[in-house]
Amino acid sequence: MAAKAGEYDVAIVGASLSGCSAAILLSRAGARVALIEKRPDPRAFKRICSHYIQASAVPTLERLGLYEPILAAGGVRSRNHIWTRWGWIEPTEERHAYCLNLRRELLDPMLREAAAAEPGVELMLGQAAERLLRDGDAFAGVAVRDREGTEREIRARLIVGADGRDSRVAEMAAVKEKTFPHGRIAYGAYFEGPKTKFWPDGAVWFLDPDFAAAFPTDGDQVFYIAMVGKERAPEFKQDAGQALIDHVAGVPDPPPIREGQRIGPVIGKVEMPNRVRGPVAPGLALIGDAALATDPLFGVGCGWAFQSAEWLADSVSPALRGIESLENGLGRYRKRHRRQLGVHAFLIHDFATGRRLNPAERLMLSTAARDPQAAALFEAFGTRRTAPPRLLAPMTRRVVATQVRRLIA
Ligand SMILES: Cc1cc2nc3c(=O)[nH]c(=O)nc-3n(C[C@H](O)[C@H](O)[C@H](O)COP(=O)(O)OP(=O)(O)OC[C@H]3O[C@@H](n4cnc5c(N)ncnc54)[C@H](O)[C@@H]3O)c2cc1C
After folding, report:
1. Which end of the chain is less enclosed by CB atoms within 10 A, N or C?
2. What is the largest CA-CA distance in the chain?
């Protein structure tokens, strides 16, 4: 593409899941990419994350060429069994319903290595984005500072903020942002020891309003997580390890957490407001958590980081090749982001307050626990493979049929 020496087609800030994915796909589309990461260590990884990658993102991982390497690194394919007070909602045998699990400790360096190996990508570690450069109304570059304090300007036609939920790029660009309250805290840790009942599948407990989950992963480890109302924060702050074990061991049909051995620290996050940002501005786009950081309860952030990177790369590649204006490409990305994630995000944010299940949700879950067809619809929704509006009519039919059958019986 047309970048001059020392200039780039794209400057991506953040070399984690979304940034590395976008760098790989844009490089393959012919772009010259500066991939800027403030952490100096190529093996750095996100510590506060339970690693679970939704099935919706598996096609993107295949396209990135990472699906097989993830499995080769010990990654675990799994589905979820969901406990409700009406019984377990069982997963289907559907091939596309399988999610992926690989600890971020292995996943993040793998992505960074794959991005750095792309001929069009220049990975710049230990460089923090500090200032955006403008050319008239459009963003046209980013000033970065290294760890010795030296500042350098990187010019590019497109700036991408892939810098996570507290995105500095979004802040510097002053894009529109909405926040929605989050009423639960999350504490989790990796354990080894006896296998869980559904191994290698995961299990989630809808305790209403609290949650617990067990996600098996590489190295025969399980990540156990508790998500409970904020009023229980003092209990977790006092002894997070004990509170986590007590919560998970206290669920119905509990997994063997008490018999397991914790590996590493308990990670916890208390404040996680949901953040929605306008994902484009002239010469600039946001991907991953920088565009949409939602409640981790539903384990969607990693998958959406991969997918939003793919949508952006596909949307702007024609413009970077000079076939159309960048504005058109960015507009296409904005629409696709909203179309794919808008309703999912709305529903997640509504539930993220920590509230109990509403009557419609109770009907849906109780039906899915009793009816395999409703369970399959719920799985398609939960794994984010299908947009909620497409499930409304078939789910309503299953609810009516199942409830009528119960009344007659
Ligand atoms: C408790 C918890 C559990 C979670 N569990 C799951 C789960 O099981 N499944 C799931 O799908 N999601 C989960 N998530 C969400 C998931 O971690 C994120 O959605 C995902 O990491 C987003 O990826 P990203 O690439 O957009 O951003 P990040 O992974 O946050 O990466 C941002 C990158 O930008 C870099 N950066 C930041 N600022 C700058 C700067 N100024 N200059 C240069 N570089 C910069 C950072 O160093 C980092 O490398 C969880 C989140 C939490 C809080």
Report:
1. C
2. 76
